[in-house]
Amino acid sequence: MASITISLPDAAKDWIDEQVRSGGYANAAEYVSELVTQERVRQGEELSLEEVRHLIKASKASGIGTRSMDELFAEAERLVEAKKARRA
To answer: By Cβ atoms counted within 10 A, which residue in 2, 47, 60, 85 is the most buried?
Structure first.
């Protein structure tokens, strides 16, 4: 795996640290890697088979969520509406 060193504003570092502390990510590198993957998908770039396998493995390891299907669908609808609003 490759390494990269970046400088961030304190607020950005604090945000990343909070995401890790909240238990969503094992470390800052995992969080940043997830952001890069999300942006690639958003821009329509296809992921490699290895990347898809990694995503599946990570989602299985994250365990079962606590939100209901209704909550998940409501969140999905909110995200779609927010995306539409940004495009308008």
So the answer is: 47
Contact present, 17 and 28 (Cβ < 8 Å): yes
pLDDT tens string 50-65: 989 988 887 887 778 7
pTM of the model: 0.58
DSSP 35-55: HHHHHHHHTTPPPPHHHHHHH
Identify which of 87, 81, 83, 73 has the alpha carbon closest to the alpha carbon of residue 38.
Answer: 83
Q: Nearest Cα to 16, choosing from 7, 29, 3?
A: 29
Residue carrying structure tokens 């940043």: 32
